[in-house]
Amino acid sequence: MTTTPARPADRLARVPEPAVDVSPYFDLDRGLVDRTIFSDQAVYRQELRRIFAPSWLFLAHESQFTKPGDFFTSYMGEDPVIVTMGKDRKLRAFLNACRHRGMRVCRADAGATKAFTCSYHGWSYDTSGKLINVPNGGDYPAHFEQDQWGLIEVAQLDTYKGLVFATWNPEAPPLVEALGGLTWYLDAMLDHDPEGTEAVGGVHKWVLEGNWKLAAEQFASDWYHVNISHASALMVMSPTGKGPKTDIVQTPGRQYTDSLGHGHGFPTHPKSRFDDRVVHEWTDYEALRERLGDARVEGPMTTGHGTVFPNFSYLPVNGSIRVWHPKGPDKMEVWAWTIVDKSMPDEVKNAQRIYNLRTFGPSGIFEQDDGENWSEVQATAHGFVAGSMTLNYQMGLGLQSEDGVHPGTTGRLYSDGAARGFYARWRDLMNTPAWHEKNAEKNAEKNPEDTP
């Protein structure tokens, strides 16, 4: 009896899912979006293949890893992953799935370990992803090559000023290139301190009913909702208890739109800086002006908001960073960190942490408003008539330009410009076969016997 050697896993035939042409859902020149993109299951499945699999996705903060064996588990789309520091102190990320039957090999949120052992059949992997133990290994055939069955590693992993990103796409451009012009705006949060930033207070997680894009687009572009949705919160936070003055409510500001789908909005009124009093009093604004320049201190370092396409968002003045994990078209899981400057005294770090929890934690006075909005929007998405509505994204049309102060294309603060840019990027990626689809086509041409 002859035994046929096993083929590499990437040679196994897989029936391709039919592609959805999403072009009919958009007329971005007129600012129109069909809300089908928020509820359709086929669209969602295509997002996992063409948005999340090819893109750079945020995983963790570097400060979560201080010694070999430290790990943190997260998701890339709906794929569970482990981020870990190896013996060489190098950060790596792997699919959190045993190569034997696919069970998660790590079921803890974070910690330290020497190896990841699957609790189903005991296959064990070291922190470099190598398969190091197979119970009853002698019962496997001669062509079983243990060193070929390590954990599946991401194609690329890189960091930007403390933020850890990864992608499954071996053809993706370098991270800094993928961030594009947004780095100038990101640095208003990440580059205050020569020592960098660190995450404090752990990771807060909560589940919301709503499509992940609703959150990502809001953080990219939507200051418009602030005075309406957050009216009660603004009243509580104002010195008089009656709400901010009209010139602050109608604050001037700018909104940055990146062709790669990123966005950042920020007020420019000198009092539009709703940060914690302790943090505000400690901050040396003159030193920051020397380091970052007046335009950043008076703009994106204020009470602004931003999104790195597709699903990482941040609030500079709060030190809040978060990721919107998709859990189907109707649900997302929000994971949020607080980051602080390393040079801050402990009492200032703690003040920033508490302030972030009170405003944008899971029970924060602003966060609850946002979550209810997204859930209410999603609640009507499945009706026949309501689900086929055309949504209006026309605010700011024709008003974007290069203003000579803030790099790239910007427009007024009250605008849908960055949302239109977000959806233009989403549309283009959704209508472009990803690297794995192109490779599958090539393999099918070379090996027609593998095609179902």
UniProtKB/TrEMBL annotation:
SUPFAM superfamilies xref list: Bet v1-like, ISP domain
The Swiss-Prot or TrEMBL record annotates one GO molecular function as: dioxygenase activity
Q: Which residue range or ranges hold the Rieske domain?
A: 56-154
Note the CDD domains from the entry.
Answer: RHO_alpha_C_NDO-like
- Kindly state which keywords UniProt assigns to this record, in alphabetical order: 2Fe-2S, Aromatic hydrocarbons catabolism, Dioxygenase, Iron, Iron-sulfur, Metal-binding, NAD, Oxidoreductase
Pfam families this protein is in?
A: Rieske, Ring_hydroxyl_A
Q: Has UniProt tagged this entry with the keyword Iron?
A: yes
Q: Which InterPro entries match?
A: ARHD_Rieske_2Fe_2S, RHO_NdoB-like_C, Rieske_2Fe-2S, Rieske_2Fe-2S_sf, Ring_hydroxy_dOase_asu_C_dom, Rng_hydr_dOase-A
Family stated for the protein in its record = Belongs to the bacterial ring-hydroxylating dioxygenase alpha subunit family.
Provide the protein name.
Aromatic ring-hydroxylating dioxygenase subunit alpha
Q: What organism is this sequence from?
A: Streptomyces neyagawaensis
